[in-house]
């Protein structure tokens, strides 16, 4: 049996962007060899708390489409809450600019009783939620001539932006920047609103390295609001209120369908937590952005297409292009939330 590693730090402020809020539940997504363990955060527990859910990689219909499953671990037997599929990745690089678009498909399920007497549950296949999430990562850097007359990248001018969008109009997603315009490791805080009400906060925390190194999987802290939920979270309380014979949907895992969707969006944004291999493929493109066309390893030497812009990358997503948001570096720095 595998040994569960202790947390590198048990301070709550290391893993969550905001203070402890009344009516919110907190989960810590701890990286593991095959995905991540999602724990109900407890600072007094050396491993971070009880395991509530687990995200693991599963066999996919295509080796080019990584597929992951979210399972509830607080219900016997484990029940599937949802699937994440990375359906498309588009990367472009040219001298001074980089763009990456990840398109995920998310499927979330409610749970229902398969056998009430034996308390066996199954997913309610007819009552699921399927949607797409796009994560775009963009960067731009200026070049200047050095003392020998060669053009080199001014890394102090390098600016990064990340945008998360979904085809569910009731959800809005924004990133809070650590220092205005970010460096690559500053894209650490995410906020999700449902019908303009704050519903989810997520925060990345890496220990001992960059978020974008394969050997450094960050921890992901997720805070979810229970405000406005019509149904009590505990199944025993639900049984008393609903007289169990009329109760079909199981929510002992404390989640409504929207909770699962909000968690899935946060996981997709923080995919380095459970899928670090994804970062390896973008390294040559980022290097190409930082090299002038005369240097080995540049976009020109790799024969990458030079004639592109973010809108052209967005069009690669086909039918999804109309709802995907991109950042325009032509906008003023202070207009942080104005998206193209």
Please explain how this structure is put together.
A hairpin with a 5-residue loop joins strand 7 and strand 8. The radius of gyration is 22 Å and the shape is globular. The protein is built from five helices and 13 strands. Strands 1, 2, 3, 4, 5, 6, 7, 8, 9, 10, 11, 12 and 13 form a 13-stranded antiparallel beta sheet that branches. The C terminus is likely disordered. With about 350 residues, the chain is mainly β. The relative contact order is 0.18.
E-strand count: 13
Helical proportion? 10-25%
SSE order: EEEEEEEEEEEEHEHHHH
SS-based structural class?
A: mainly beta
Net shape? globular
Uncertain segments are: 230-253, 334-340
Tell me which oligomeric state these chains represent.
Answer: single chain
Largest sheet: 13 strands, antiparallel
Tell me the Rg in angstroms: 22 Å
Tally of DSSP helical segments: 5
Task: Kindly report how far apart the N and C termini lie.
Answer: 50 Å
User: Approximately what portion of the residues adopt beta-strand conformation?
Assistant: 35-45%
Mean pLDDT: 81
SSE layout and pairing:
Elements: E1 24-32, E2 35-41, E3 49-58, E4 67-72, E5 79-94, E6 97-115, E7 120-145, E8 151-166, E9 171-176, E10 189-194, E11 197-205, E12 219-225, H1 235-242, E13 249-250, H2 257-269, H3 277-280, H4 283-289, H5 310-315
Antiparallel strand pairs: 1-2, 1-12, 2-3, 3-4, 4-5, 5-6, 6-7, 6-13, 7-8, 9-10, 10-11, 11-12
């Amino acid at each position: 049996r595998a040994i569960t590693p202790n947390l590198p730090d048990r301070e709550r402020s290391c893993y969550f962007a905001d203070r402890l809020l009344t009516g919110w539940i907190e989960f810590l997504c701890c990286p593991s060899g095959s995905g991540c363990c999602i724990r109900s955060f407890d600072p007094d527990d050396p491993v971070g708390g009880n395991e509530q859910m687990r995200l693991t990689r599963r066999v996919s219909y295509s080796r080019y489409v990584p597929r992951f499953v979210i399972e509830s671990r607080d219900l016997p037997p484990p029940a599937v809450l949802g699937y994440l599929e990375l359906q498309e990745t588009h990367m472009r690089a040219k001298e001074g600019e980089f763009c990456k678009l990840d398109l995920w498909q998310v499927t979330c399920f409610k749970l229902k009783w398969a056998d009430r007497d034996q308390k066996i549950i199954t997913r309610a296949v007819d009552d699921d939620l399927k949607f797409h999430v796009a994560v775009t990562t963009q960067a731009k850097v200026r070049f200047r001539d050095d003392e020998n007359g060669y053009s080199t990248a001014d890394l102090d001018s390098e600016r990064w932006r990340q945008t998360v969008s979904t085809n569910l109009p009731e959800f809005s997603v924004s990133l809070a920047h650590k220092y205005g315009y970010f460096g690559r490791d500053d894209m650490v805080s995410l906020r999700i609103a449902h019908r303009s009400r704050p519903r989810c906060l997520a925060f990345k925390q890496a220990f001992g390295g960059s978020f974008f190194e394969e050997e450094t999987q960050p921890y992901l802290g997720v805070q979810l609001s229970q405000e406005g939920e019509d149904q009590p979270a505990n199944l025993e309380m639900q049984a008393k209120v609903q007289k169990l014979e009329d109760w079909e949907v199981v929510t002992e895992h404390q989640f409504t369908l929207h909770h699962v969707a909000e968690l899935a969006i946060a996981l997709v944004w923080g995919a380095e937590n459970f899928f670090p291999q994804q970062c390896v493929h973008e390294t040559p493109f980022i290097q190409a952005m930082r090299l002038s066309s005369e240097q080995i390893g540049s976009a020109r030497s790799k024969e990458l297409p030079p004639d592109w812009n973010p809108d052209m990358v967005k069009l690669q997503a086909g039918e999804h292009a109309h709802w995907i948001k991109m950042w325009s570096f032509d906008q003023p720095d202070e207009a942080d939330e104005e998206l193209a």
